[in-house]
Each structure stands twice: as structure tokens, then as C-alpha cells.
Design brief:
Layout (H helix, E strand, L loop, with lengths): L11 H13 L19 H15 L9 H10 L3 H4 L1 H10 L7 H30 L4 H17 L9 H9 L1 H12 L4 E2 L4 H7 L2 E2 L3 E6 L5 H16 L3 E5 L4 H13 L3 H6 L4 H15 L3 E4 L6 H14 L4 E5 L13 H19 L3 E6 L15 H4 L4 H4 L2 E6 L1 H4 L2 H7 L9 E9 L5 E8 L4 E4 L17
Parallel strand pairs: 3-7, 3-8, 4-5, 4-6, 6-7
Antiparallel strand pairs: 1-2, 8-9, 9-10, 10-11
Amino acid sequence: MGDNERLPPHNIEAEEAVIGSVLIDPDAILTICDFLKPEAFYREQNRWVYQACLSLYQREGKKEDIDQITVAQELARQGKLEVVGGLGYLSHLVSVVPTSVHVEHYAEIVHRLWVSRQLIAAAAQIAAIGYEADPDVEGSLSRAEDVLYRLHRGESRRDFVHIRSVMDDYFEGPDSALSAAGEAGRLPHVLTGFAGLDELLGGLQRSDMVILAARTSLGKSSLALNIARNAAVEQGACVAIFSLEMSKEQVVQRLLASEAEVDLQRIKNRRYGVVEQECVNEAAGILSQAPIYVDDSPLLRVVEMRSKARRLNYERGVDLIVVDYLQLIRSDVRTENKVQEISEISRSLKALARELDVPVLALSQLSRAVESRTPPVPQLPDLRESGSIEQDADVVMFIYREDVYYKKEEWERQYPDRQYPEGLATIKVAKHRNGPTADRVLRFRQNIVKFESVPEEEDIEQPALPRFSG
């Protein structure tokens, strides 16, 4: 028999043993229903019988035991009893196993062979991609990787779910969510490490795209790296950083300066005293243990970013993706202008957040229109020049620092009754799809590129920022 005539891998005896075990011991389904799906059965009639067992198990309201009689009634209701072979076939299934003690072993065989059949189908899909001979090599590789990724994740097309199942997940409560996340090795959300911001946002939520925008030199890269550090060191979150502007060496230097609280220029020049050397060594020890991964490829395409993020997620399980910054990413499709290109990139990043179920923190430049206003406070319309960023984002945060735009002498002349806001940065949450918008004040120590929460006991006057609607 040639390769084209070979039957796909299957084991009818194992399939029958699984269903027979469930028919003689209804509780057996509890150990296998989480991983064994009806589509894993090769023989169609076995698939239908197992589906009938699952339907009885999952039925709401009056609980029905799983046995030959109830399964026969369920199959009859679906019009499939005679097709599968009637009561005679169900009796045969019961007779093939004396006990249900090995049901999990039989189920694993059925599942493993189903994966093998899926792998054969995936190979055919990948072969078809190869035969297309698409000149976009990266695109072809990404599509092929996508086939295997979906297989590994066991993902199928999303379908409608009853609202009750969604509410059940919600009413389990945060404690249950935290417990479940701990068991699965995934964090329910990623904390920024800044109490006021975390209280407002509830942390960075999975599948959200969070935009952090500002004009140049206001500290958005520093804040993003501080958030990445806090998540990795304090929460153990696995963080992937795509640094399109800075080299990985520059990223490490900034992280070291913040962690050691040593001037960034001294870190760059490697000129520090004995005490500072000890601080740097200690900081290096902490950071080297943190699950932070940096990719500093310049001019990265979305398809390449997606492929790398998925690979790291498969190997390590990613909790947060940081992109520095959005306007430096290359689009996968040809567009007529920069606005369309950024719009396509924005949609792709949001899709990546949903696909990997992780928050994506993307940095963005703002238009020069900000500096034409007095005071130059960022507004949501400043993002609209960049296409659909505002629409795609779940959260939009701006950084505004009055000490960048006002010299101390000018400030004291205009605001004689207010203290000069040196080192204070207002984080303006201008959009929050699932919560309130507000401003939070952080302290920015520029020489060590570190943002810090402002202690509650400090009586700091909030900047008198104008309020704008989106």
C-alpha cells in the first residue's frame, strides 16, 4: 500500500474502550472531558455516541446519569440511534471493557492519534503554502507557523457561547481567578508597579492594547522599561520587549541605571565608585534573574514581530509585550500613505494582543500639534493623524511634564503661588475602554531614568490641566 493509500492513524479498540468505560461508570467522563473532544474519534458512530455522553453530562437543570438507556434516548432525540447501530452497538461498547479504571489511558491514545491526524493535515496545508511560491518569504513562513501554532494550542474557530458561561467565569471572583491563574502559570493581569495607576486601570489587562504616547524626550521609553521591570521582578511576569529605537545594550544600561539608582551617564561610561559598583553588581544580579527578553531588530515587520512573539509565548508563556515604538514598525502590506500604514500596524498589534491573550504596551509619538497649544497638554485628537490608533486601543495614556515646557523662572513669574513642578510627570489616562479616565502624578528622576510613585504623605499640588473629551 503506497503512502497515498495509507489510512490515517487511529485505534478503534481504544475509542470503543473509552465509551464503554463511560457507559459502565458515568463518573469516568470527569477525568477525560477536559481534553478529549468528540472530533478526536476517527469512527463517526463513536464520535456521535461520545457526543451524546457529553451532552448528558453538560445538560443543565435535572441531572441525567450516563448509561445505555439515557445515551440511547439522547441519540434517538438527535435522530442518530439507528445510524450508530441501535441498542445492540451500545451493548457491544459495554462488553469491550470489564472496568473503567483505564479510561484515561484509552482517552490519551485516542487524543494522541487525533493529534497525529491533525499533524498530517497541517503538513498538507504547509505543502500547499510552499507550492504557492509566494515571493513574500516571511509571510509564507508566518502562515506555515500559524498552522502549527493553532494545532499546538488546540485552537478552533470561536463560536457563540451562552451568556451564562461568561457570567459564571465572572462570578467566580478575583480570588478564584488568581488561584486558577496560579495553577495554570498565567497572571490574570500585569501590574505596572505604580499604585495609583494600577488602582485606576486594574493593571494591564490581557488582550488589551495599551498606548503610551508623548512627544520626544518626555520619558515614555523610561516609563515602559520601568513597567517591564516591575512586572518581571515583582510579579515574575514574562516580558517581551521589541526595541526598534534602542539597541539591547542601551536597554540594559537604562534598566541597570534605574535598578542601581546610578546616573545613566556613569553606567554608559562605566565610571563609578566602589559603592556605586556594589549597587550596579546587585542590580545586575536582580535583573539577570528577571524573565525579560529583548529583541532590538530595527525596521521590524509586523509578521516578524508576530512570529517571534508567538515562538517566545510557546517556549516561555508571555505575560506582557512592549513595543518601542509603533511608528518604527514596518507594515506587511503596501499602503498609499503613512496614515494607512500606521492604521494597519495598529490593527495588527491589537490582533496580536487578542491572539496571544496578553497586554501589548505600544509606545507612540505624538504630532507636533501638541506644542502649538498653551499649555501643550496631549489630547486624543493628537493620535488621529496616525490613523486608527485611538479606535484600536483599549487604553491611551499620555505623559505630560510641565518642567519640560516651563523654565523655573518663567514658572515662578506665571504661577507665583504654585511650587515649581520639578521632576513631576502627569500620566493622563485619556481613554479607558473598560473603566474611568483620570490623571496620576509620578516622580521622574531623569538622571537614573526612573519613574516612582509619589508617597501619599507628600502634599503635591495636582497640575491644573485642562480637561478634554475624546
